[in-house]
Specification:
Elements lengths: L7 E5 L4 H12 L3 E6 L2 H13 L3 E6 L5 H15 L4 E4 L14 H29 L2 E6 L13 H21 L3 E8 L13 H10 L7 H11 L9 E4 L7
Parallel strand pairs: 1-2, 1-4, 2-3, 4-5, 5-6, 6-7
Helix pairs in contact: 1-7, 3-4, 4-5
Amino acid sequence: MNNIENKVIVITGASSGLGEATARLLAKKGAKVVIGARRTEKLEAIVHDIRAEGGQAEFIGMDITKPHEVQALIEKALSAFGQIDVLVNNAGLMSIAPLSELKVDEWDRMIDINIKGVLYGIAATLPVFQKQNFGHFINLSSVAGLKVFSPGGTVYSGTKFAVRAISEGLRHEVGETIRTTTIEPGAIESELKFGSSHKESSEFVTDFYKQAIPADSVARAIAYAIEQPADVDINEIVLRPTSQEF
């Protein structure tokens, strides 16, 4: 039995990287995907490709830091397909720099995207899941949410630890019929590595990501969590390059 086919799956941050790879893989498995991000031209191209291969997909331009735009993404999915089975909270930012550099604007941006963005996704989708009496949250954390990535990644780690805590609390509060999965990737090929403005940190991250594995590695992990029977909740998946020590 294909437990992905015909499921309606909403993905944030889906214009590239993990979000794009997940949308393409799930659509091939028969899911109806609704993708959101700021770069609408990239979303449009992804949806065009999915439809050209016989899949079903919709998109909407949206900013994860604006609650009303997150709500619009959820409403788009409901108007197009009548329900939502899965929300993949994927949008993220990784700005690496020592705390002493005082990149306060970047701290704020990471908190807005990595923490508040996840909460906005939950706020928009939880009432739908509760009304349906089913649903599945998949929240993207990081191996940096398991161990503090420092020096440089202290604030980023703080946001990803928060995602894990929020996910576990969510699971405990609503878990009778609603599933919650946290994905914690290591170095994955995506645009995440380009988020640092601090020169030395950016050079370190670029070198670190030479060992990165493809984005569809995470997409397959997400598909695994989704395809389980309704009474099986895969709560946490950690994956990283075999060569990655951290």
